[in-house]
Amino acid sequence: MSMAVSAAWGMAKDRACALSLRLVRSPDRSYGEVMVVSNGTGQRSRALRSSVLLHAVMAVSGLIMVLFLLAHMYGNLKIFEGRQAFDGYSEYLREVGEPLLPRTGVLWIIRVVLLISVLVHIYAAFTLWHRSRAATAGAGGWRYETTKNRRGVQRSYASFTMRWGGVVVGLFVIYHLLHLSADYVAPGGASSSPYQRMVNGFSIWWVVLSYVIALIALGFHLRHGVWSAFASLGGNSSVARRRGLNQLATVVALLILVGFLIPPLVIFAGWVR
Ligand code: HEM
Description:
Blueprint: H1 3-12, E1 19-25, E2 32-38, H2 43-76, H3 83-95, H4 105-135, H5 157-181, H6 194-201, H7 205-232, H8 239-268
Antiparallel strand pairs: 1-2
Helix pairs in contact: 1-2, 1-4, 2-4, 2-7, 2-8, 5-7, 7-8
The protein binds protoporphyrin IX containing FE (HEM).
């Protein structure tokens, strides 16, 4: 049961508020999601509308980050063109927009948009989670009785990958910025060349392993996140569209996962040095 539904149910159950519920399937097929339409009025229905708004905010901020990831992944593949091309591309990102904008102007615009996206994404996720807890008296969202695990209660695959996957990706981004962007944490040696920073870092097994783990967490997060984002924006309106959304989410998650995995793995294998 999604957080929004838990919140909606909590709001609706103690008042005469007409709800129409529609059962749909999430991409992992592990739980049902319910689309809720309320014709209630007053404070509680306003809270419900704001939950819908928060889902939309999460969707749009998430999709902005996906666009950045696709561009970043594509840029990383320039390592196959050699050091000069890669470092030249990094330099281009700082020069682009001159003289209309100051040096690094475009880069800073991208950074600010990304930072706002990250902050509102986390704020919306936390607020929806908090509402879900409050609506279920601290028990969290609904969990189905099942014989599948020892506790007899099915942990929602989606809530697990979104919540804990999100935490892992957040921690990874901090580590990654200190490593490859700021050159502050420099396993294998610091360098003013971004290309060399990658070669130095990805020659060490535990650096590669930490990136692989974080990227797999990112892949799972994106698999559900992309589906969820388009569903929140109204894309899950028929069986055919649902199938299309499932395929799109899988393709985007796999593309980003494989694309990002290539640089650390080819460097570690010694194919790029
Ligand atoms: C193996 C995968 C990745 C590699 C090899 C990689 C590589 C790099 C490099 C070399 C830089 C520094 C670029 C420069 O200084 O010009 C950088 C910056 C950055 N990366 Fe990654 N990256 C990877 C994955 C990711 C992921 C998954 C995210 C986000 C979830 C991410 C977010 C960023 C951000 C936000 C910056 C800072 C851009 C800036 O403001 O200068 N990267 N990355």
